[in-house]
Design a protein that fits this description.
Layout lengths: L1 E5 L7 H15 L3 E7 L12 E5 L5 E2 L12 H14 L6 E4 L2 H9 L5 E6 L3 H8 L2 H13 L5 E4 L6 E2 L2 E2 L2 E2 L23 E6 L8 H12 L5 E6 L12 E4 L4 H10 L2 E4 L10 H8 L3 E4 L11 E2 L5 H12 L2 H14 L5 H13 L1
Length: about 350
């Protein structure tokens, strides 16, 4: 098959990793995969073997040497670059895969004769509304309307099959490189002098980092053998005296090392429960105990569940995990078996089979 993937830009968020990994796997399977991208972008942060077509908003073909800062293009400039660029591509494609809500429009309107799919990785309107700025509310409206376009929809979690105004009958989870995110080889039942609590810290309130910090502060009043380590957190919240540390992994290898070095990972997000959440599946694959608010595949058999926005419950679960070595290891083993479904070969094959239908 010949597959074209339009992007608004290359970025560092998890959704870009998914698309780069899918492209690489499909190329391994013998398919041709191309990206088309406006020049207001960085070069791929997540390496890809796919060919990349760069276009400016006038529809002129460019090269990576012509890239300009991301903020120099508004969304309509990106639409122009993608639409005009796709109209100029001489290659014929079997599949065009929209992925972000704003790529759905140029895919819908392009005259390329191909099957048109829309891979939905989150319910985007909710995030724009939470932001509150007028421009983001406008983008939220555009995102909401994108789900009404006549494109064949594939969602990345079962929860989005019928979610608000999304209706889809195809599900493909995000994938995981199990050769990078592999379990640590330590005995979790052994006594430890210091228990390391970790989370992936983001500044957006809906990510829930605040509740991990507050829960840690509550528990640290009772115990002096715990530390909090925040990956990608704001350096301003680092306080080594209070045993709060911030680290910035440079790549997936360092991120997986971070997960394996922790005794517990807390995934405290507060929105779109039931979606697949990378910190959860990555931590599970690394053999680390999980405290979670409700993201797939975490449940009471493989993790310790807490309500959203509940610092007291987080502190309580940390204490429980520390004091329950046997149950801890049972849940870790269950989690390790369940993350096998996210192997990239399985994920990429499932989506390519949808393309063939």
């Amino acid at each position: 098959m010949r597959i074209l993937i339009p992007l608004l830009e290359f970025g560092k968020a998890g959704g870009y990793r998914v698309l780069s990994k899918l492209a690489n796997k499909w190329i391994e399977f013998g398919h041709q995969v191309d990206f088309i991208v406006p020049i207001a972008s960085i070069e791929p942060y997540f390496p890809t073997d796919a060919r990349i077509y760069w276009f400016n908003s006038s529809g002129k073909s460019c090269t990576a040497s012509d890239l300009i800062p991301v903020n120099e293009y508004k969304f309509w400039n990106r639409w122009q670059a993608l639409y005009k660029g796709m109209e100029q591509l001489t290659s014929t494609y079997d599949v065009v895969l929209a992925n972000h809500s704003l790529t759905a429009y140029p895919v819908y309107f392009t005259k390329i004769k191909a099957k048109k799919f829309y891979y939905i990785q989150a319910y985007e309107p909710e995030y724009g509304i939470l932001d509150g700025r007028l421009s983001h509310k406008i983008l939220s409206l555009l995102a909401w309307n994108s789900y009404n376009l006549k494109l064949s929809k594939i969602v990345n979690s079962d929860v989005y099959r019928n979610y608000r105004n999304i209706t889809a009958d195809k599900v493909v989870f995000p994938g995981l490189d199990l050769s990078v995110f592999y379990p640590k080889s330590i005995n979790e039942s052994k006594d430890k002098k210091v228990y390391k609590i970790g989370c992936v810290g983001r500044i957006e309130p809906y990510k829930g980092t605040k509740y991990v910090l507050d829960g840690f502060k509550l528990l640290s009043k009772q115990r002096n053998d715990i530390e909090l380590h925040i990956a990608f957190g704001d350096k301003n919240i680092e306080n080594k005296t209070d045993k709060v540390f911030v680290t910035t992994p440079a790549n997936d290898l360092e991120l997986s090392d971070f997960y394996r070095s922790m005794n517990i990972i807390v995934a405290p997000g507060t929105v779109q429960m039931g979606g697949v959440h990378y910190p959860i599946i990555e931590s599970m694959a690394c053999g680390t105990s999980i405290i979670a608010t409700g993201y797939y595949p975490a449940d009471n058999t493989n993790a310790w569940m807490v309500p959203i926005k509940d610092s007291v419950a987080i502190a309580d679960r940390i204490e429980t995990i520390i004091n329950s070595p046997d149950l801890r290891n049972i849940k870790i083993e269950k989690a390790l078996s369940e993350v096998q479904q996210f192997d990239w070969n399985i994920v990429a094959t499932k989506m390519s089979n949808y393309f063939k239908q």
